[in-house]
Amino acid sequence: MTEQQPPEEQAAPRPAAHRGPPIEVAEEVLDARGEHTAGALRLALRDMALESGGRDDVPWVRIARENLVRAAEACVRSPNIRMDMLHCMFAVDYEERIELNYALFSLGNGHKALLKVDVPPDEARVQSLTGMWEAAGWYERETHDLFGVEFDGNPDMSPLILYEGFEGYPGLRSFPLHDYEEW
Amino acid sequence: MTTEQAYDTVDMMLNMGPQHPATHGVFRMVLTVDGERVVDVTPHIGYLHRGSEKLAENESYGQVVTLFDRLDYVSNLNNELIFCRAAERLMGIEPPERGQYIRVILAELNRLASHLLFIGTYAIDLGAMTPIMYGFRERERIQNMFESVTGARMMHNFIRIGGVKEDVPSDFVPRVRALLDDVERGVQECDRLLTFNEVFLARTRGVGVIDLPTALSCGLTGPSLRASGLAYDVRKDYPYEVYPYLSYKVPVGENGDCWDRYYMRVLECYESLSMIRQCLDQMEEGPVMAQMRRIARPPKGEVYVHGENPRGDIGVFLVSDGTDKPYRVKVRPPSFCNLVSLRPMMRDAYIADAVAILGSLDIVLGEVDR
Amino acid sequence: MEIERGQALPVFRPSSWERPRDGRFFDSDEGGDISTAKGNSPAPNLIRNAAPGVVTARLDDLAALGRSNSLWTLTFGLACCAIEMISTHMAHHDLDRFGVVTWPSPRQSDVMIVAGTVVKKMAEPIKLLYEQMPDPKWVIAMGTCATSGGPYYRSYSVVMGVDHLVPVDVYVPGCPPRPEALMDGIVKLQQKIKRDAKEGVRSAPVIVGSEPESAPEADVEESND
């Protein structure tokens, strides 16, 4: 399925140009369930939301880094939302920023939403959410392992899936893919 | 903790793993024990971290499916299904109905195989040798069926973006019906042998109890969450594929102990059997693959989808930058989150019950570490 | 008892001893060609005739015979291949037929079946387990991950094959190998153990599936001469 590698005369450094048909952008449309959640989120977060969007039944809201704990508390406490489960937490490296995503689920009210927080790569540091969900601890340790994001307030930041002494953060785009050392 | 406060007790560390037959893989936990009681447990994972998410960034969408096969290596087809659904959602394509039926039949068969493995290994964790023989006998039948359909016993790469690789063999429906009768007998046999066995009840009833708020806070999902009394099933709550056309019950437990977690899976086996029978009745002839380009190239965007795996709620976050390789693939592995709840479950348990509690979570280390 | 010169010695022959027709007994002149003996050494098939039903072998061969037919494997599943390894041990394929028994402790095991991906975090425990096993010990690398890294080739956290850590005797390729392939690997290991005992060296590792299908298997024959 992979395309053939370019021939050798292209050994000169070339920009990471996109080969193939022009890139389309998928339009983001929320369905009725997603609109309902998005409305409830807007009410709960009010002025904290910087940006919002979503696809199907998962709306997302981008918030500022310093508002993270306040926004998470609002999501948990607000009676219309009550996000009782931290479904997942992960980072995406966009090189100029690292985007932390918190997938919040409300099993009681049937809401799903993503909270997005941008952190700069050179000062990747946010507040920990271990006080709100017990599951956050392991996700934060994993994100720390792979992306080097620091979480203030997490009591245990020892390596979870990597080992002591691993150099570099393999989740980052700058980490070479086949950087293999002979063991 | 201790009954006699007159004694000075010192907590002792007890290491278990990474090589231990009852850890279901390379899982290590350090128990802090006070006499016979477990005070605290520190799980250590990462002994199978293979960097799947990073590797997926350099492979085309079709190739990523093979990496998903190897995440939860007991329920491979369920894993393929979730990634293909994520890519399809991003591309805005819908697989044809026959393709969806085949997907659901295979996924439910795989759920049966996974639960049979659980019943067997859980029994062997508790000291019973026979059920694993029964479980693997039925599992072997299901794997033979997979082999005739997909060509592989475990790593199928059969569910593709846009449908399934090819249509099933012509004798698929009668063979699956015959298989289901055999497997149903096997499940009943295990059920009769184990479920209300006096010793089994004594080992599992009231052991490793977790209440619902703690379970939710830990992110526990799947049969383990339903054992705590919440009927949350992605197939029912956020239906996908052809699940809305099927009628089935979601078994819910009462106590959230090890026995409930075991029994949920036994009941799910019966539900899966009935689901597959309904699928076979409803399935009609037709195409199995959607019309699409040979190389999947989803438009730029991101999507978060989740589905029901035998172990719990699996989620996939897929970021596409418009090229033929994903920009970022993140898996929300159910076993990873189920392991978080090990700590509250083990608190104040006996050392002898530690294996029973760990076994009842039915973890697969391949997806815990990825 | 006086015996005159030239008279045959009386030989005690229990009636239950069935002597082969072409054989001869010590000192007996019937059917024997004493000229094949040299110096003090007796005639070649002396012992066989003196004690029928007794075989002679080198102690190494006998030990290898015993070892190869009761291989205790370490219960050590790493990843996906472990499921197929369990399948091989279970009722349908029944590895017990080959004398293979799983054992959870490395101190009592002979064979380590490395079933699955070896990652760098697991490298030290694997070495430790191997060192804990008593000699003689053998290693079977099961699956492509354990032989070469497989689908995780050159991933940042994966060791490219368990032979970077411990010496491997049999490679079983496949992702995962079928139970039949693992059984083939076990049989190959049994042959290798016997062959190595005969030759007195540790021979090169065997790769399952690399030989032609109808290769003459000379090394399986049990000859005692």
Description:
The complex is a heterotrimer of chains A (183), B (370) and C (225). Chain A has helices at residues 32-45, 68-77, 136-147; strands at 49-55, 58-63, 85-93, 98-106, 111-119, 125-127, 150-152. Chain A has 183 residues and is α/β, with parallel strands linked by helices. Chain A has a five-stranded mixed beta sheet, covered by helices on one side. A two-stranded parallel ribbon of chain A has the order 6-7. The longest helix of chain A is centred in the first third of the chain and has 14 residues, at 32-45. Chain A is globular, with a radius of gyration of 19 Å. In chain B, helix 4 packs antiparallel against helix 5 (130-150). Chain B has 370 residues and is of the alpha+beta class. Chain B has 15 helices and eight strands. In chain B, the strands form three sheets. Chain B has a three-stranded antiparallel beta sheet. In chain B, strands 6-7-8 form a three-stranded antiparallel beta sheet. Chain B has a two-stranded antiparallel ribbon with strand order 4-5. Chain C has 225 residues and is of the alpha/beta class. Chain C is 29% helix and 9% strand. Chain C contains six helices and six strands. Chain C has helices spanning 46-50, 59-68, 80-89, 120-132, 143-148, 179-199; strands at residues 72-74, 101-103, 111-115, 138-142, 170-172, 206-207. Chain C has a six-stranded parallel beta sheet. In chain C, helix 6 (179-199) links the parallel strand 5 (170-172) and strand 6. In chain C, helix 2 runs antiparallel to helix 6 and helix 3 (80-89) crosses helix 6 (179-199). The two termini of chain C are 38 Å apart. The model of chain C is unreliable at 19-32 and 221-225 (pLDDT under 50). The chains are: A alpha/beta (183), B alpha+beta (370), C alpha/beta (225). Chains A and B meet through strand 3 of A and helix 1, helix 3, helix 8, strand 6 and strand 7 of B.
